[in-house]
Amino acid sequence: VPSTRWVVQMAAAVTAPRIKFAWTADSILAGTDAVIAEHKAVEDALAATPAESWGPAELARWAEAEMNLSTDSSTWTFGYHVSTEKEIREAAATAEEKIDAYCVESGMRKDLYDVLVDFAGRVAAEEVALGPQEMRYLERLLRDFRRNGMALDDAKRAKLMEVKKRLSELSIAFSKNLNEDATKQKFSKDELRGMSDDYLASLEKPSDSDGFLVSLKYPDILPLLRKCKVEETRKRMDFLFSTKCQDVNVPLLEEALQLRSELASLLGYESFSAYQLEIRMASTPDQVLPFLSVLREKLIPYARRELEVLLQLKKEEKEKDGAEFDNKVNSWDFQYLHTRLMDEKYKVDDEAIKEYFPLSKVTEGLLEIYQRLLGLRFELLPDENTWHADTTCYAVFDQGSGSFMGHFFLDLHPREGKYGHAAVFPLQRAGNRADGSRQLPACAMLCNFTKPTAEKPSLLKHGEVVTMFHEFGHVMHNICTEAELHYFSGTRVERDFVEAPSQMLENWCYEVEPLRIMSGHYLDENKVLPDELLHAVIAAKNVDTGLLNLRQIFFGTFDMTIHMSTGGAVDTGGLWRQLRREVSLIPQQEGTNPAGGFGHIMGGYQSSYYGYLWSEVYSADLFSLFKGEPMSPVLGRRYRETILAPGGSVDGMDMVRSFLQRDPSQAAFLESIGVAG
After folding, report:
1. Which residues contact 317 (CB under 8 A, 6 or more apart)?
2. What CA–CA distance (Å, rounded) separates 512 from 552?
3. Quick one: which of 33, 96, 237, 490 has the fewest CB in 10 Å?
4. How far is CA 619 from CA 121, 368, 586, 635, in A?
């Protein structure tokens, strides 16, 4: 829990968020029905209003109805990701399925589309005047309706609705299977050689025998793959992780691929990728595939040299142990050998470093950095209602004016049934209401950092500090929005730009001053990260950069390839194995198909995974202005105003140019990963 020094007298009134966290299974289902009924009533009234009577007020009513639907839906569906009660999670999953199905129907209302087309004609004829964001909103609504098939005949439109409903069902089932996975593998202490006492103490113990149970949750499996000296143990856990939900989820994914191809064909697109990329910065697959392949070619020589270094490490270890050397870096070897290289050559000892990053100190330092950089003030609200005792809530104020800006919640430890990765949920996006008042944002950051034990607090590896800093960047993107309309609020930017603001902020985790602000030994927080460890972290930033970036290119290439298929069955397992070897240079373990656990491509990032690297190009260029002065409040304020505040009300490329005050370049990205242009 962060220091109580964050609890200070409020300088401005705090408006309670609209979203609520008191759930029962019955209230979730009843609330869901009410949310849908309320939204439908507004849409019915708007559809019944003749186009000649439409004006800015009707557009504002529509925008407010969309905002209420989004926020109130979060009230009834968020428990699916955070509740410890299975009954709540199941009810929330049902609620999400119902709301998603309703949204599909709402987005395909021909009566609304027709009246909107007529209204747009009056706007074009200058019979009605709209402001810039209202005009952009009208254009986006028309585009969304057309992409939903409103230009199709009745039969094709009905088929499209059927396809979309089924895709929603498949996505929810896929995610539910991952969230509910409780796979655990038992190992003896000898089979876990190399693991620290802290790690062993954190593991669940079998009730009926000796040993330790290792789950597939990140705090269990990632340290094991990095540190366990027993190759068979790593191989076993790599197999389990790579087959996570394989039997149940791969059929769901492969059905979804055929349905997505059918959807694209109905709408007149060459492929699902062409459909998806129409509304991205990249615009077409012809922009993405060369981007990935050119970058791959630049990285291959670096990656091959890196593999030779790792192979030599493995050979030396096998010779020392008198064990057979297979002359390969296997999928279960890479993390282990990479960690050894970091420990031995770069002296990046995660176990030593994490002693200087207790979660409470990192949180306190992170909050201080973001406040100073962006001109904000955060205040802990210890009495605010949340969904779990581990969760804390903060109010955000502008430093200059003292005005209240919104709330954020931090939920940082794993528990049964909780979302298993790191993400920010924009529970309540900002936006103006029809009466001129404004809804302020509230969002939740979910992470899964190791829980404290009786002997030690929660300690973060440096990579986890980076993760926390990245995710909090999404929090700030939501909180700092000044977009007038909910449709453009916060992170509602082009999907291939949405990661850029957070990726840019990761760089603070490799700068001296921020690292000192966020560090302090758990036994004495006055002892910051020593210079030798601090400089080792910075020096090691680009260790194995070729292999690590090829891994991202592999994911992006797999995602693009499966979504450029034109309707035939896709063998995701065969394609995964082929591309993993060809692109990442490291083979996949036989008998596994990790596509069953690739949540991104069933959770909104389908044909969009390339966006992580795409946006890194822009994030590196953005950070280039901060080099040498990472805590500059002047640049920080400019960043807040030009990148965070507009949300989706301005195109991503225009925001980048506005901040840089020039055209963007790839040079900073290539330099940042240690690759010559």
Report:
1. 340
2. 27
3. 33
4. 39, 22, 28, 14
Cα within 13 Å of Cα(477), Cβ side: 28
Global pTM? Answer: 0.81
Q: How many CB atoms lie within 10 A of CB 442?
A: 27
> Which one-letter DSSP state was computed for residue 448?
-
Q: What is the pLDDT of residues 395-453, one digit of tens each?
A: 999 999 999 999 999 999 999 999 988 999 999 999 999 999 999 999 999 999 999 99
pLDDT at 3 over 60: no
Q: Are 633 and 372 in contact (CB under 8 A)?
A: yes
471 labelled catalytic: yes
Helices (H), 56-130: 56-77, 79-82, 86-106, 110-124
Closest of 527, 621, 563 to residue 269, by C-alpha? 563
Q: Using pLDDT thresholds of 50, 70 and 90, give the confidence band for residue 11.
A: very low
Residue 301: CB atoms within 10 A of its CB come to 12
Helix and strand tally (H, E) in the chain? 26, 9
| Residues 190, 183: Cα–Cα separation, whole Å | 21
- Helices 154-180 + 86-106 axis angle, to 10: 160
Residues in Cβ contact with 437 at an 8 Å cutoff, skipping those fewer than 6 apart: none
Paired residues of 442 in beta bridges = 407, 428
pLDDT per residue as tens digits for the range 235-246: 999 999 999 999
pLDDT surpassing 60 at residue 5:
no
Choosing from 96, 355, 464, 471, the catalytic residue is 471
**How far apart, in whole angstroms, are the C-alpha atoms of residue 372 and residue 632?**
8
Nearest to 412 by CA among 366, 454, 455: 366
- 3-class DSSP state for residue 330? coil
What sections of 411-530 are H helices per DSSP? 462-479, 500-506, 512-518
Q: Which H or E run includes 562?
A: helix 545-562
Alpha helices in 108-196 (DSSP H): 110-124, 132-147, 154-180
pLDDT of residue 677: 60
